[in-house]
Amino acid sequence: MIDSGGDKLPVLFIHGNSSCKEVFHHQIHQLQGQYRVLALDLPGHGESSRASEPRQAYSMPSYAHTIIEVLGKIGIDKVVVFGWSLGGHIGLEMLALFPQMMGLMICGTPPVSIGADNVALGFRPGVGLAGKAEFTQEDVKQFVTDTYAAHALHEPFIVDAVIKTDGLARQYMFEAFLSPQASDQKLLVETSNIPLAIVNGADDPFIHFDYIAGLNYRNLWKRKVFNLPGIGHAPFWQLPERFNPFLFDFLKQVQ
To answer: Which of 98, 213, 229, 233 is 20 to 30 A from 201 (CA-CA)?
Structure first.
């Protein structure tokens, strides 16, 4: 876990499917000293161990409960969260579970209702690798290219994170997301008073932009969904110089 320590406002970064905490190094480097910066590897990802009970551990609500437990152990009673992709869905779960959250920014994360048909409203076809347990070498290359853009294949830590991820974390998370027992994240953003910022890459291959823009948000930052031109699913990594001003502005306004 990354924890810069100190008594400043805590900012927590939650990574996406088959990724790791290091993907936020462009943001963490700039924020250290101004905030208490936190980032962790989800169970089954990065340096975290694989779950002993994967069916229970690998779901968005379970990830959220795990993170809240970690925050409690290190004495965090308020936090701003930036969640990317799967991390954004975990952040949405925290809207209901952690009311001390001072703000949430999400990226590549459509807030969808319960059931496969409703999930399909927020996502474009072709996200099948997101729930595939066993990756071939070609799957790894395709996943990295689609998720980060092609030049990410030259970043060893990104490729290694995909390879190291417990394949059951993808399979069971995706199954839980599509199940009738999933959370209604659309309802959460329509009813939560916690400030919510949405900043996507306009070339994100996974998400339906019209769906995201058309929801009735309760407390949407600047009353607008931001889509950054020429950037894909991971704008904070692909072009941090374009993304970071949005994050830093949001942090200043919610503290």
So the answer is: 98
Separation CA 211–CA 89 (nearest Å): 16
Q: Which residue has the tokens 């919610």?
A: 254
Which residues are 35's β-sheet partners? 32
Contact 126, 205 (CB under 8 A): yes
Asked if 11 and 82 touch (Cβ cutoff 8 Å), the reply is yes
Is residue 134 exposed (0-12), middle (13-18) or buried (19+ Cβ within 10 Å)? exposed
The token pair at 250 is: 């949001």
The pTM of the full predicted model, rounded to 2 decimals, is 0.97
Are 237 and 148 spatial neighbours (Cβ–Cβ below 8 Å)? yes
Residue entry with tokens 């294949």: 153
The per-residue pLDDT of the chain, averaged, comes to 96
How do the domains of the chain map onto residue ranges? Answer: 2-254
* Gap between the Cα atoms of 249 and 181, Å rounded: 36
pLDDT value at 4 more than 90: yes
CATH tag, 2-254 = 3.40.50.1820
Q: How confident is residue 128, by pLDDT bands cut at 50, 70 and 90?
A: confident
Per-residue 3-state assignment (H helix, E strand, C coil) for 199-247: EEECCCCCECHHHHHCCCCCCEHHHCCEEECCCCCCHHHHCHHHHHHHH
